[in-house]
């Protein structure tokens, strides 16, 4: 509880910080809107040309896109400390200051930044999600809504868990490791399309290692009435929990890595 | 001319120093390329198109290979704008626009070549339908290389205009995000321009953004016949000249209005 209060406190301070420069904030938020809008436009143009992707209709594709973008940008919004400039914190020695305080390092890292500009990306994602479910003719029932919320919630932790990989590599190597972008940003780009569009190795990568498919595509396909795998209903509710598992495992590894941390400061 | 050439050479050397970043970028860009091609393949299976798939694959690979040409900027200059350090550059007995043009040209040239060569080799080794196919013809290849060179000048001119806008607004990110996004979208990085609706393509290929990578790629795949090449190259040259002129104008106006803050 204490941790949560600390988090909320730092978030409110950080939001105030961002709003100190209203013009810059507005411009940047607008910039993000254009950015995510362009991504959506790309999907719309593809749908315009191709009509459908295997069994997935246009509406289904918008739904998948919206789900990914809402989830990913929620993680970037609230977890900016991890997704943003962690490598900068290590390189500048700023991480040292966190070691002195009587709180967990991971908590402090997550509390160190917020990115309210992402609100426009989340808005684009929501619009896409709503349009997608309308076009797919989804009838919303309570279990369906719960499944969607669970999927977004678990996806949030999955994304933060994957960004921790980058943070861990950075603690050991000091340099920011572009390589781990393949799982985070690569995962976003790939899994905004349903996973069965991909050949087996990529499908395995995003089901077993970075389980975007379990967290998002299994529940989403269930909501759309076209289950991805021939699994019983309860499996659709269990599968997203793998996202939280990834976060938990990575947290343990992160805390182990911190013990090996050697300051770069002078 | 001589000082600009030596700046160009120095910046070229500087770019070659970051080899670790090159390797990471290489793997990352290859992965993105494979994912994009997988998506387009699945879409092609759903509804085949008149445009041959090997053209789409070539488009994706060349775009990924020259990613650094589109999106890279002179961070040092951005820092100078923020701190007021640009005042030292004003003291140099040089034309400021040309000074920065030489720097960004070198950065974009070396930054993209270092990544592009291994990536294009990798892409060429991939199996049929995934990798980069051979160019349509030898004249087509030569024309596309020439077009790529013009595209490099064009993108450097665009970058200098963005910098001029950054100087004016003092906002290092907001305006840039929008301009960079327009660039990514209309150069065909996010979605190949060849997959845009046909009516859009007729207009978009005339845009300056299409001159950067789209024109060279189309010459490579043979979508623009080699016989058309002089017109394409002319269009590129005209846009580049116009953008350089506009950039010069903006920079000289900025220079007159420049206020260095701080003491």
Summarize the helices and strands and which ones pair or pack.
The complex is a heterodimer of chains A (266) and B (263).
Chain A: H1 2-19, H2 22-50, H3 58-78, H4 80-83, H5 86-92, H6 94-99, H7 105-111, H8 119-135, H9 142-173, H10 181-191, H11 200-209, H12 212-223, H13 233-238, H14 241-259
Helix pairs in contact in A: 1-7, 2-3, 2-8, 3-8, 3-9, 9-12, 9-14
Chain B: H1 2-15, H2 19-46, H3 53-65, H4 67-70, H5 75-83, H6 86-91, H7 96-125, H8 138-169, H9 174-186, H10 198-204, H11 214-221, H12 229-257
Brief rundown of the structure:
With 266 residues, chain A is mainly alpha-helical. Chain A has 14 helices and no strands.
Rounded to an integer, what's the Rg of chain A over CA atoms?
A: 19 Å
Gross morphology of chain A = globular
Q: How many beta-strand segments of chain B? A: 0
Q: Give the helix/strand class of chain B.
A: mainly alpha
Rg from Cα of chain B: 19 Å
Provide the β-strand percentage band of chain B: under 5%
End-to-end Cα distance of chain A, whole Å, is: 36 Å
Low-confidence stretches of chain A: none
What integer is the average pLDDT of chain B? 88
> Helix count of chain B?
12
What does this structure look like?
The complex is a heterodimer of chains A (about 270) and B (about 260). With about 270 residues, chain A is an all-alpha fold. Chain A has one domain (about 5-260). Helices cover about 75% and strands about 0% of the residues of chain A. Chain A contains 14 helices and no strands. Chain A has helices at about 1-20, 20-50, 60-80, 80-85, 85-90, 95-100, 105-110, 120-135, 140-175, 180-190, 200-210, 210-225, 235-240, 240-260. In chain A, α3 packs across α9 and α9 (about 140-175) packs parallel to α14. The longest helix of chain A has about 30 residues, at about 140-175. Chain B has one domain (about 1-255). Chain B is built from 12 helices and no strands. Classes of the chains: A mainly alpha (about 270), B mainly alpha (about 260). The interface of A and B includes residues 32, 46, 54 and 175 of A.
């Amino acid at each position: 509880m204490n941790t949560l209060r600390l988090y909320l406190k730092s978030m409110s301070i950080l939001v105030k910080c961002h709003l100190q420069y209203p013009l810059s904030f507005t411009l940047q938020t607008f910039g993000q809107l254009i950015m995510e809008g362009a991504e959506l436009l790309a999907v719309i143009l593809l749908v315009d040309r191709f009509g459908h992707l295997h069994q997935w209709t246009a509406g289904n594709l918008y739904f998948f896109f919206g789900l990914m973008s809402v989830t990913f940008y929620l993680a970037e919004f609230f977890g900016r400390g991890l997704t943003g400039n962690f490598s900068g914190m290590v390189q500048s020695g700023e991480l040292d200051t966190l070691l002195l305080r009587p709180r967990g390092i991971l908590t402090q890292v997550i509390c160190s930044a917020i990115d309210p500009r992402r609100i426009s990306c989340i808005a684009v994602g929501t619009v896409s999600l709503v349009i997608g479910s309308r076009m797919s003719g989804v009838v919303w029932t309570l279990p369906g809504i719960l499944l969607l919320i669970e999927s977004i919630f678990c996806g949030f932790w999955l994304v933060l868990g994957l960004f921790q990989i980058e943070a861990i590599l950075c603690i050991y190597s000091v340099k920011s490791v572009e390589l781990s972008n393949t799982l985070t940003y690569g995962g976003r780009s790939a899994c905004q399309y349903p996973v069965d569009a991909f050949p087996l190795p990529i499908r395995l990568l995003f089901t077993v290692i970075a389980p975007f498919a379990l967290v998002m595509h299994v529940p989403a396909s269930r909501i759309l009435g076209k289950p991805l795998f021939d699994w019983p209903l309860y499996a659709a509710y269990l599968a997203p929990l793998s996202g939280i598992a990834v976060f938990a495992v990575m947290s343990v590894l992160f805390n182990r890595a911190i013990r090996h941390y050697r300051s770069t400061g002078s | 001319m001589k000082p600009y050439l030596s700046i160009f050479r120095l910046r070229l050397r500087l770019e070659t120093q970051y080899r670790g970043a090159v390797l990471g970028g290489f793997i990352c860009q290859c992965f993105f390329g494979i994912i994009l091609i997988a998506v387009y393949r699945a879409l092609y299976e759903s509804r085949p198109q008149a445009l041959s798939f090997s053209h789409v694959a070539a488009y994706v690979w060349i775009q990924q290979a020259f990613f650094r040409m589109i999106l890279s900027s002179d961070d040092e200059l951005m820092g100078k704008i923020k701190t007021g350090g640009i005042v030292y550059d004003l003291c140099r007995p040089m034309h400021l626009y040309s000074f920065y043009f030489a720097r960004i040209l070198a950065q974009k040239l070396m930054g993209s070549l270092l990544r592009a060569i291994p990536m294009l080799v990798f892409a060429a080794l991939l199996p049929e339908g995934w990798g980069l196919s051979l160019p349509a013809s030898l004249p087509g290849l030569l024309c596309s290389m020439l077009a790529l060179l013009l595209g490099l000048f064009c993108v450097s001119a665009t970058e200098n205009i963005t910098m001029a806008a950054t100087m004016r607004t003092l906002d290092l990110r907001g305006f840039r995000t929008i301009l960079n996004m327009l660039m990514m979208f209309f150069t065909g990085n996010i979605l190949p321009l060849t997959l845009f609706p046909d009516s859009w393509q007729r207009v978009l290929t005339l845009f300056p953004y299409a001159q950067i990578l789209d024109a060279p790629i189309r010459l490579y795949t043979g979508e623009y016949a080699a016989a058309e090449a002089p017109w394409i190259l002319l269009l590129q040259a005209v846009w580049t000249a116009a953008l350089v002129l506009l950039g010069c104008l903006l920079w000289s106006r900025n220079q007159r209005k420049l206020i260095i803050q701080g003491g």
